[in-house]
Amino acid sequence: MNAPLPLILDCDPGVDDFVAILMILAASERFNLLGITVSGGNVPLHYTAENALKACELAGKRDVKVYAGCPGPLLRSLALEDAVHGETGLKGVILPPPAMTLQPLHAVDFLIETLMTSPQKVTLATTGPLTNIALAIVREPRILDNVEEIVTMGGSMHLGNITPAAEYNFYADPEAAHILYTCGKKITTIGLDVTHQVVTSLDWLAHLKSLENPVTQVVLTMLHAFREYDMKYFEVGGGVLHDPCVIGYLLNRSLFKGKDVHVEIDTSFSLTRGRATVDWWHKRGLHINAHVFNEVNVEGFFDLLLGLLARYGGETP
Ligand code: RIB
Ligand code: CA
To answer: Which candidate in 178, 196, 242, 291 is catalytic?
Structure first.
């Protein structure tokens, strides 16, 4: 077994971010979770930060360090997704106020200090707007020398979800996404082309219900509430599990297939703001700055997710 992967998760919980956190904490032998950084996104920062704490408490992992970061994007105002995730970000459930508290350090300072001092290279997983990561890169570009991989949920080769052109995380802060895709690293990118294949079926939710542990019951309630919006607006057969795909990839890379390409982020103020143009056929001959996925083993992913959630009840499904 490989040594646990040094990991920082940057997120905006959000129902699917919440599930991604539970996946990391269930697979504690696989990850050395150095911290969770949070930004405003699906819902305002005071909710996203609290929700990250709630996920750790629900998982019984009160030692996880959570850092609040940027409340909104570099430019313009924050585009919320509370219609998708509910007013508090945890649609369908009310969890007790967390006993855990946020770390006093700002998320951007934590990112810089950790990446400048970690004895091992660190993997960054991002599941929300990229403001924290982008600001850390701008303030201290040398952090990139100690980054093993950046795995980002964002973008879409085809239709967007918050506009016809753009996926939410990149639309929420296009300038931050541009900083990421021009920083010199090859960004592992999991966009809507993949995540819209990963939808919660009633059959799978029934399997989840059969596990009957406190964690799965919360997840089950949230995922039932979460799926309504996606089924109504995106002609999919269930709730789209965007952010869990990032953790699924880190746990089993063979579940995802894609290729090295050039990606450009639209930072204009037109209808296509926030769009990630993917040069899939290398028509422009530009340098590689991303690895974009277009295929996923859906059954394999859901088997992995069920197995992780079953661990909270001491079960193996
Ligand atoms: O477009 C999907 C992304 O936007 C996910 O990360 C979801 O949590 C929302 O933040
Ligand atoms: Ca998210």
So the answer is: 242
Find the distance separating the first CA and the last CA of the chain, reported in whole Å. 22
Ligand 2 mean position to 243 CA, how many Å?
6
Domains of the chain: 5-198+241-293 (3.90.245.10)
Report every protein residue that has its C-beta within 5 angstroms of ion ligand 2.
12, 14, 17, 127-128, 243
Its pTM stands at 0.97
**Residue whose token pair is 């305002």:** 44
What are the 10-residue block averages of pLDDT along the chain, 317 residues in total?
93 98 98 98 97 98 98 93 87 95 98 98 98 98 98 98 98 98 98 98 96 95 93 92 98 98 98 98 96 98 98 82
Cα 29 to the chain's mean position, in Å?
Answer: 20
Is 242 noted as a catalytic residue in this protein? yes
- Smallest CA-to-CA distance from 93 within 216, 237, 238 is with 216
Measured in angstroms, how far is the CA atom of residue 203 from the centroid of ligand 2?
25
